[in-house]
């Protein structure tokens, strides 16, 4: 009996186009030095992989002390926002081939929040601002005996702002927030918008008053950094403008 052999034309070529890429990462360890410093890591990697894959490779193969947050690895949990080549992005949604791997790729923590270690910042002020705008449905009156119905048109009014994953890419790209961490920031306003414009909600006035504060919506200077940074494509600046308009007209 003859043994089956592979004809040359049947053989699959190893087509993995690995490249050599350098990741210039801003490192910080308060137990070692008071200042952050840049450190280069050069690796072989498929350019179709993501920056998160590169960070894993560096951590697992070169330096286990490299510290960053990530969870889902698929653009859903919002935990791996970082500045990549000077722009806020999710590491798990950024392909290496799309960020010019011929030059060193810079990776650093998002700005405006206290740096704890390497790419990890203290998110507590960000989440406090989120909690402050009451990001939950407040429906007064009797308990319903069936779903609270809503027309497709009414649902559409806040559809965009339901997509937020609380990654902080918007808030930490805002110059007003950099200068004064007291500003609520775009993400909190987006999440207030999500409920203010929900026809089933009864706490719109309360949320508007919270955002009428000196650290509220009026601090926005309409720079559009937030809209550019949002990995979910939310029209963040537009949502902030709608909240401002609702404050003036009290119609929402
Ligand atoms: S609005 Fe966009 S950028 Fe801002 S926290 Fe939500 S998902 Fe992230
Ligand atoms: S790891 Fe969850 S959004 Fe990137």
UniProtKB/TrEMBL annotation:
Q: Give the matching InterPro entries.
A: 2Fe-2S_ferredoxin-like_sf, 2Fe-2S_ferredoxin-type, 4Fe4S_Fe-S-bd, 4Fe4S_Fe_S_CS, Beta-grasp_dom_sf, Helical_ferredxn, SDH/FRD_Iron-Sulfur, Succ_DH/fum_Rdtase_Fe-S
Q: Which residues form the 2Fe-2S ferredoxin-type domain?
A: 30-113
Reactions accelerated catalytically: a quinone + succinate = fumarate + a quinol
E.C. number: 1.3.5.1
Tell me the cofactor note. Answer: Binds 1 [3Fe-4S] cluster.
| Keywords assigned | 2Fe-2S, 3Fe-4S, 4Fe-4S, Iron, Iron-sulfur, Metal-binding, Oxidoreductase, Tricarboxylic acid cycle
Endpoints of the signal sequence = none
Q: Give the GO molecular function terms.
A: 2 iron, 2 sulfur cluster binding; 3 iron, 4 sulfur cluster binding; 4 iron, 4 sulfur cluster binding; electron transfer activity; metal ion binding; succinate dehydrogenase (quinone) activity
Per the record, the GO terms for biological process are: respiratory electron transport chain; tricarboxylic acid cycle
Please tell me whether the keyword Transmembrane helix is annotated for this protein: no
Record flagged with keyword Oxidoreductase: yes
Q: Which enzyme class?
A: oxidoreductase
The pathway to which it is assigned is: Carbohydrate metabolism; tricarboxylic acid cycle
In this chain the 4Fe-4S ferredoxin-type domain maps to 154-176
Cofactor requirement: [3Fe-4S] cluster; [2Fe-2S] cluster; [4Fe-4S] cluster
Q: Which PANTHER family match?
A: SUCCINATE DEHYDROGENASE [UBIQUINONE] IRON-SULFUR SUBUNIT, MITOCHONDRIAL (PTHR11921:SF29), SUCCINATE DEHYDROGENASE IRON-SULFUR PROTEIN (PTHR11921)
NCBIfam families (UniProt xref): dhsB, PRK05950.1
Provide the family line: Belongs to the succinate dehydrogenase/fumarate reductase iron-sulfur protein family.
What is the name attached to this protein's record? Succinate dehydrogenase iron-sulfur subunit
């Amino acid at each position: 009996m003859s043994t089956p052999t592979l004809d040359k034309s049947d053989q699959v070529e190893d087509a993995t186009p690995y490249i050599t890429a350098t990741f210039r990462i801003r490192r910080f360890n308060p137990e070692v030095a008071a200042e952050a410093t840049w450190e280069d890591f050069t690796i072989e990697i498929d350019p179709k992989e993501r920056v998160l894959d590169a960070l894993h490779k560096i951590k697992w193969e070169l330096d286990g002390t490299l510290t960053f947050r990530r969870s889902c690895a698929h653009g859903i949990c919002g935990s791996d926002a970082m500045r990549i080549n000077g722009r806020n992005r999710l590491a798990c949604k950024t392909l290496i081939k799309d960020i010019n791997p011929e030059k060193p790729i810079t990776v650093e923590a998002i700005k405006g929040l206290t740096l704890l270690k390497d790419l990890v910042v203290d998110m507590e002020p960000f989440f406090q601002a989120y909690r402050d705008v009451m990001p939950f449905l407040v429906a007064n009156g009797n308990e319903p005996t069936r779903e609270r119905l809503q027309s497709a048109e009414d649902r559409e009014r806040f559809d965009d702002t339901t997509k937020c994953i609380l990654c902080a890419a918007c808030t930490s790209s805002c110059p007003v927030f950099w200068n004064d961490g007291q500003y609520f920031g775009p993400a909190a306003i987006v999440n207030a918008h999500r409920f203010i414009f929900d026809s089933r909600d009864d706490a719109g006035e309360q949320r508007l008053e919270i955002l009428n504060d000196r650290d509220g919506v009026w601090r926005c200077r309409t720079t559009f950094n937030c809209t550019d940074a949002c990995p979910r494509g939310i029209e963040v600046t537009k949502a902030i403008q709608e909240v401002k308009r609702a404050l003036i007209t009290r119609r929402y």
